[in-house]
Specification:
Keywords: Membrane, Transmembrane, Transmembrane helix. The chain is mainly alpha-helical. It has 3 helices and no strands. The two termini are 28 Å apart. The chain has one domain.
């Protein structure tokens, strides 16, 4: 395989999209599972809510922008 094809820009974009999706899978999905199981997030603090909002909004939108 040609070395220049492995270092092309489109290969790096896919890797960055996967990196943007990792926090969504690790944090956001766990928060949703806890919310559906217990009816609220434990601990219910403003920091947890802001963290959930940041992960949900920033990383998801970042992945969408990279795909567009």
């Amino acid at each position: 395989m040609n070395r220049t094809h492995r270092h092309a820009l489109h290969n790096h974009t896919i890797l960055v999209i996967l990196i943007f999706g990792l926090p969504i899978q690790l944090i956001d999905i766990n928060f949703y599972l806890i919310l559906f199981s217990y009816g609220s997030i434990q601990p219910s603090t403003p920091f947890v809510c802001l963290l959930w909002w940041f992960i949900d909004y920033c990383f998801y939108v970042g992945g969408i922008v990279l795909m567009a």
